[in-house]
Structure formats: C-alpha cells, structure tokens
Automatic annotation (TrEMBL):
Organism, as annotated: Streptomyces kaempferi
Domain Response regulatory: 3-118
Name assigned to this protein: Response regulator
Sorted UniProt keywords: DNA-binding, Phosphoprotein, Transcription, Transcription regulation
Pfam families according to UniProt: GerE (PF00196), Response_reg (PF00072)
Transcription listed as a keyword: yes
CDD domains: LuxR_C_like, REC_NarL-like
InterPro entries the UniProt entry points to: CheY-like_superfamily, NreC/VraR/RcsB-like_REC, Sig_transdc_resp-reg_C-effctor, Sig_transdc_resp-reg_receiver, Tscrpt_reg_LuxR_C, WalR-like
C-alpha cells in the first residue's frame, strides 16, 4: 500500500485528491493537511509520496520541500500548481522534487502518477515539461553538461536515458534485464557522479548534453 500525504491550503483540492486516490486499491491517503501542518504530519505518518502545493499563503511550498528533504526518511515529493508556467519550477526540481503536476491533472492518470513516483520514477505534466526543459537547457553551457556525463559508464548512461524517458526503477530493470536493486545502485551512482539531488535534474542534464539525441547503443557492459 502506497501511503500518500496531500498538502494544500484549499480544502476542496485536498478532498478531491483524497477521493480520487483512495479509490485505488493500492493507494491510501494517510493524511491531507494545509501547509502549516505538513512537516509534523510527515514526521508522524512517514508517507511514501507527498503531493505538495508549491504556493500556499501560510507557508512557502519550497520551504516545506526543504524540510521534507531533511527528514531521516524523506518521502518522494511532487509539486502541485495551477499554473503551467511557474518561476518556482526549476527551483523546486533543483531542491529535490521528483515531479511537477498541475492540479487539473486527469483524475484517471493520478493513481498511475503516484505509483510512478513511489517506484522511483519522475512525473512532469505535459503542460510544464517544455518550460522546464527549456529553462534547464539555457541554465548552463552544453559543454559543461557533456563533461559531467563523461564521468558515467556506458551502463550508467543507458540507465540515464531511461530515467530521462520517465521510466521507473522496475521498468528500467525490465528493459535492461537487471534487478530493481541493481538499477537503484546505478541510479545512486549516477546522481552522485552528476552531483544532482534527484532524477529530474539528472534527466534534464542529459537533455542539455544532447544525450537523448544520441543513438542508443548496446545496454550491456
């Protein structure tokens, strides 16, 4: 059972997300709270996934994200917004958010997205993906990104391509005929070598370096 914490200052949003997710057989909304209660609630219930509003009147969503990342067992966090172009997107992703969703995401897609997050995948709403990628592509020189990727082995580069395609650890394992544990080890090594805090940053660094335009080689080695 995937335990979810929904954090939003609008009661209607909290209720709507809880209703949608609780209908899934493998997802439980353990709590749905406003921003001021987020950190204490997360400490109490230790959720697997947090859906966190990025703009709240009582506490900044980025501040909550930073607090969640400092917990002994930090949950996976996806940011929520009503805007398809938000200046906080890049900051949230650099701070360790695993995804970015619009609040009007199709209800039928929401359980799948939560499962993807819980399994180590990344999720970006199609409406914000281009904005996010464009922001990262202009954030630094292409040569610098390519230099960072040069630290990776061929196997790690293959894993990184699949991360950039949004695949979860389990899906990457299936594609590359690896155990999920081995994939997790590769992901950890990739994040360490690239000096980034999360899969989204690694994926966008790969995009900036042009890795996703390279022909896919053999996935062994």
């Amino acid at each position: 059972m995937i335990r979810v914490l929904v954090v939003d200052d609008e009661a209607m949003i909290r209720t709507g997300f809880q209703h949608i997710l609780d209908a899934a057989h493998d997802i439980e909304v353990a709590a749905a709270v406003p921003g001021g209660q987020a950190l204490q609630t997360a400490q109490d219930i230790r959720p697997d996934v947090v859906l966190l509003d990025i703009r709240m009147p009582d506490v900044d969503g980025l501040t909550v994200l930073a607090g969640l990342r400092r917990l002994p067992h930090p949950p996976v966090v996806a940011m929520l917004t009503t805007f398809d172009m938000d200046e906080y997107v890049a900051t949230a992703l650099r701070s360790g958010a695993a995804g970015f969703l619009l609040k009007d995401t199709d209800p039928e897609e929401l359980p799948f997205l939560v499962r993807t997050l819980a399994d180590g995948g990344t999720v970006l709403s199609s409406k914000v993906t281009r904005t996010v990628v464009d922001g990262y592509l202009s954030a630094g020189p292409r040569e610098s990104a390519a230099h960072s990727l040069a630290r990776l082995t061929d196997r790690e580069r293959a894993v990184l391509v699949l991360i950039a395609e949004g695949l979860s650890n389990a899906d990457i394992g299936t594609r590359m005929h690896l155990s999920t544990g081995t994939v997790k080890d590769h992901v950890s090594a990739i994040l360490g070598k690239l000096e980034v805090d999360g899969r989204v940053q690694a994926a966008l660094l790969a995009e900036r370096a042009g890795l996703l335009k390279e022909p896919r080689g053999e996935e062994g080695g």
